[in-house]
Amino acid sequence: MTLLTEPDNRTAAPRARSVRSRNFALTVPALVLLVVFFILPVVSLLLRSVMEPEPGLDNYRALLGSTTYLKIFLNTFSVSALVTIVTLAIGFPVAWALAIMPSRWASIVFAVLLLSMWTNLLTRTYAWMVLLQRTGVINKTLMGLGLISEPLPLVNNLVGVTIGMTYIMLPFIILPLYGVIRKIDPAILQAAALCGATRRQALTRILIPLAAPGMVSGALMVFVMSLGYFVTPALLGGTANMMLAELIAQFVQSLVNWGMGGAAALVLLIVTLTLYAVQLRLFGTARMEGR
Amino acid sequence: MLLNFDRLGAWKWILLGITGLTTAFLILPIIFIAALSFGSSQWLIFPPPSWTLKWYAAFFADPRWLEAAWTSLRIAAIVTVLSVLIGLVASFGLVRGRFIGKEALRALFLTPMILPVVVLAVALYAFFLRVGLNGTFTGFVIAHLVVALPFSILSITNALEGFDKSIEDAAVLCGASPLEAKLRITLPSISHGLFSAAVFSFLTSWDEVVLAIFMASPTLQTLPVKIWATLRQDLTPAIAAASTLLIIVTIALMLLTALVRKGLKS
Q1: Within chain B, which residues score under 50 in pLDDT?
Q2: Is A47 left (phi over 0), alpha (psi -120 to 50) or beta?
Q3: What backbone torsions phi and psi does residue B135 show, to the nearest 5 degrees?
Q4: Whose CB has fewer CB within 10 Å in chain B, the N or C terminal residue?
């Protein structure tokens, strides 16, 4: 008996080790895919920014030294900031209402949020291009009501981009904020009322501070996603307010200037990853999606 | 008080008003496009002067639209299968494994989700140009797989972490082989995670625009690329018809998800 069990005991230890290494092996297909088709291409693109046309920082000097490009950086930040503020201003009351309204009504709003999120991005952008054009429904209605006499320029400018981006980003702020407000104990607000707080005081001193982490986290997410957005600004924005993602695409596709394209990509990457790190630091988790 | 719907007073109506307007803001453009796709006006006049199916007829008569839709469907199907398979295997490694750098690896697997897609698109475009994958079917599948995989890994690791491994061990003790126990006990238990991984992977590929714009060639393009290229020329109602078909696919997937969730719960 002992002779038979002993070899078994001896093989048990190495076997446990081989199970561990096999478990690592399970991640290898995914790892190889990401190293070959994600990390290496991105790193080599960034390397080209300091190698082409000749080694050095010339691309960065050109990018950061020109007012044209600085204007694009500034525009990217201001459009993203504007979209973040608007979505937060609309998203907070909606998330608040969702957290307390009867569940029958709330489920309708959720269904609409999901439908809008899941609808193809180009479809949604196309809808706004049609709605906002000179002869579109919005201009026709405003003129029919006698509010304006000339069609308003609503596309190919800041107004168009802001409306289109707000439309896309709203669910991304409403859903997490709903979760945060849902977790607040209503008894805290009842206590405030019992202690004589008015509604306004309860809102500004209790509800908003308690919801603040969700607001900051949602706002950061929307801001970061907006910074790197390509499709909607390209279709609803004008040449006068080009954004960074479009600039990168233009360097590569129209100008075939890989050095400058890589440099602009690095700038976008650094800003995105920095803000992502802030998000992780503050809230532990972050889920984002950029298109 | 502020979190009690019936005791909000006048504020209740303000909140409901904002929520109602926002809901309308989110749903109306989608309904609007669906309505316009049946309108007869080339210039997308609303309400349409009369109703017609001619834009759908044009869509189905044009081999370029159909081919693009077929390409999209094939790419999305292959990406879904690969993403769930690779994601499933990797998730087992991430959840069950004990090796150095596991958490770093998990973070790495999710980075394609946070990186601006345009950066990945440009980088992959450069790489594919060198290795001759640009404009190929394989190139499309690889590009979409990179962005779909994080969703798959996220869904499946979540499901796997919620599964009690001792049930699988019990099956092995009762005489099942480890593989059999995984196939017959563990996989059915995490099927909700596998299902969301499949849905997210499919939608990620099916709707993906930015990577596809860079990967596309004159002979190979997906439906979003075809819509993009058409949009840049004019706003023809043919796009409204294509868009409405996409919306129908979306609604079908949403209903399927709801049904499967219900079925899994009961």
Answers
A1: none
A2: alpha
A3: 75, 10
A4: C
Q: How far apart are CA B169 and CA B166, in angstroms?
A: 5
Query: Mutate which of B7, B14, B26, B153 to disrupt the A interface (most A C-beta within 10 Å)?
Result: B26
Q: Are B127 and A41 in contact (CB under 8 A)?
A: yes
Distance CA A257, CA B117 (A): 19
ipTM of the modeled complex: 0.88
Instruction: Give the residue from chain B lying closest to A41, CA to CA.
Output: B123
Secondary element (H or E) of residue B21:
helix B10-36
Reduced 3-state DSSP string for B192-215: HHHHHHHHHHHHHHHHCCHHHHHH
C-beta atoms of A126 and B122 within 8 A: no
Residue A223 has pLDDT above 50, yes or no: yes
Residue of A nearest to B44 (CA): A130
Q: Output the pLDDT for position A20.
A: 52
Chain A residues inside the 8 Å CB shell of B123: 41-42, 44-45, 265
Which are the contacts of A235, defined by CB distance < 8 A and separation ≥ 6?
A125, A126, A129, A164, B231
Chain A residues inside the 8 Å CB shell of B96: 23
Predicted TM-score (pTM) of this structure: 0.88
Residue A85 CB: number of other CB atoms within 10 A? 15
Output the pLDDT for position B86: 97
Confidence tier at A291 by pLDDT (50, 70, 90): very low
CATH number of B62-265: 1.10.3720.10
Backbone angles phi, psi at A184, to 5 degrees: -75, 135
**Which residue of chain A has the CA closest to B226?**
A122
Residue A95 to residue A181: CA distance in whole angstroms: 7
Helix (H, G, I), strand (E, B) or coil at B220: strand
How many Å lie between the alpha carbon of A2 and the closest alpha carbon of chain B? 23
Please give the angle made by the CA atoms of B71, B227 and A77, to the nearest 5 degrees. 115
